[in-house]
Amino acid sequence: MAEIIPYSPDALPHLIRRVSERLYQGGIVAIPTETFYGLAVDPFDEAAVERLRRLKGREDGKPILVLIGSMDQLPLLAREVPSIAKILIEAFWPGPLTILFPAVPALPVNLTAGTGLVGIRLSSSKPLMALLAHVGPLTGTSANLAAQPPARTAMMVEQALGQEVDLIVDAGTTAGGLPSTVIDVQQPLRVVRDGAVTRQMIQNVLQTHGISLV
Asked: Among 29, 51, 73, 163, which residue is least crowded by beta carbons within 10 Å?
């Protein structure tokens, strides 16, 4: 079964050490986000990403999103930040909006699914931000098998994936609701997945810059 470590600010040094050890070994760690629990591996570790894809039953051609803990980590993943992305970042980060950026060449093809793009989100989850600030960017695909509901508690993660996940960071029950919205800021600008940030919210921001959402 997976190792479970409760999150608290006092336990953060121990938590950082254990998560880092698991990631270095190519492990999978379940982490809390502002919506649901996610599955984290080192996004630069091709073998770990492949293990995650097999666990999730991830379809070929479907990229895996990455979570960052600060804007300083964005250049590690994104080759450039288009002007529209800057507008959306200013309006919605940290928060449940995943933006597709041109990926840096160092990212594994199985992370980007050969699209040349990487989905990135700056999470508003304080426990997660504190962790990511020390261990760096991590994948954040939801902690559930394909076609199964996402997990809101560490116990739900353990019940569904306890034999496959190496470590679970238990930060209590997450807010749930809709998953993150995914938007592609290449032209034409489009919403790939509807979610917590609505199309109307995005359109309201873009209109102030004379930009329309398809």
From this structure: 163
Q: What is the pLDDT of residue 197?
A: 97
Question: Taking the alpha carbons of 148, 35, 9, 65 in that order, is the dihedral positive or negative?
Answer: positive
Give me 13's structure tokens: 């040094």
What are the two backbone dihedrals, phi and then psi, of residue 34, each rounded to the nearest 5 degrees? Answer: -75, -10
Question: Around Cβ 112, how many Cβ atoms within 10 Å?
Answer: 22
Measured CA to CA, the distance from residue 148 to residue 12 in angstroms comes to 31
User: 108: which 2 tokens?
Assistant: 């594994």
Q: What is the pLDDT of residues 48-61, one digit of tens each?
A: 999 999 998 876 67
How many residues are listed for the chain in this entry?
214
**How many CB atoms are located within 10 Å of the residue 17 CB?**
12
- The confidence score (pLDDT) of residue 60 equals 65
Angle between helices 12-24 and 126-135 (to 10 degrees): 60
| pTM of the complete model | 0.94
Measured distance CA(116)–CA(107) in Å, rounded? 9
pLDDT value, residue 107: 97
Residues of the chain with pLDDT under 70: 59-60
Q: Which amino acid is at 8?
A: S
4, 166 contact by CB (below 8 A): no
CA distance 138 to 132: 7
| Local structure of 48: helix, strand or coil | helix
> What was the pLDDT predicted at 56?
85
